[in-house]
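Many introductory courses stop at the sequence. We go one step further.
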Amino acid sequence: MEKLIPSLFLFLALTLSNLSSRVDGKVTSVDRKLKLLNKPAVKSIQSEDGDIIDCVDIHKQPAFDHPALRNHKIQMRPSSGFLKENLSTKNKSSKPVMFQTWQKSGSCPEGTVPIRRIRRQDLLRATSIEHFGRKPPQVFSASNATDQKDSLPYINNTKVTLGPMANRSVGILVTYGYNYIGAKADINVWNPNVESPGDFSTAQIWLKGGPGNDFESVESGWMVNPNLYGDKRTRFFVSWTTDSYKKAGCFDLTCSGFVQTSREVALGSALEPVSTMDGQQYLITVGIYLDPNNGNWWLHFGDKVVVGYWPAKTLMFYLKQSATLVEWGGEVYSPNVKKTPHTKTAMGSGDFASGLRGNACFMDNVRIVDYSLSLKYPEWVSTWGDEYNCYSVYNDVKYGAYPVFYFGGPGGHGHLCP
């Protein structure tokens, strides 16, 4: 027995040493990733919500870590002036002023862009350092366990396959059949319940091109994503992919690709205030437009701010010249959609589309741009929901006004969405 004791201590010492080296290895890789993501700041702003915003030299932002963008010349504004819309064609709805929380604490100087600082705990929440900031890949399934409709939408006499997906549930307005070089909407802003840290809920615009299992997409809107951001605040985000979220692309500036030009908006930062039931309704205007002269997809926020662009001619194939599918609406990501028990993560306001304005989340002034170079309501649209008993959709068409699209729901809430 006495001979076993030294051997046991030796075994424990070696085990602890091995574990220590593994931890040290992980910390080293985390530090390396943090250094890659967080560029040297000209100025840093401490936001009252806990975020730190670094004002980074515009020429030293993460985009230029991409091998294909090392010698990229920044374009500060779109070269085209076609983004005009006759005000008489818009639904007139009040849009109280919205802002990002960090803006109350300061501003970034000329020649810099505001970037939300990534912290150690942000990386440690990710499934792996390599997957940090990526949108989870779509997992396709043969059928849904809850309430999948058998029929798929027909748009312009074309059957459009939109799912089903095992790890996502969407409620969307969709148009298909033309070459689209832009889309926009006024998006109603809420703060939906997100049940699990690994779930997220969005209200956004997608512009897509390519085959359904390997598409390219540029996206923007608002999102609640505790795993990515570390809290349940509603935040302005962008996302992109060139392979259906498998390996390429990410949220915000967590990988190289999106070129930011604005010093006014920080991607991934919190929006306030948010809408309340039967109370004041807040909206953000989001537009994504292709500059036909150079192939950059430009992101617009509000009526005046041009945030930046995706250099599609460098990064993309299908989206170099146009998108072929546009979607507006909400998405809930969770391992527990389309199964029992269903996630209680909400979409939109958490109310069904039938709640209408003041209760349900909506998108107003939905528009596309085609090669006629004018903003207009799509000629052909259809609505789609993966789980109508969990998250519903309704395109409200009234005489003399453009349609308003409503979407959302509470998720698992009873026997209809178990």
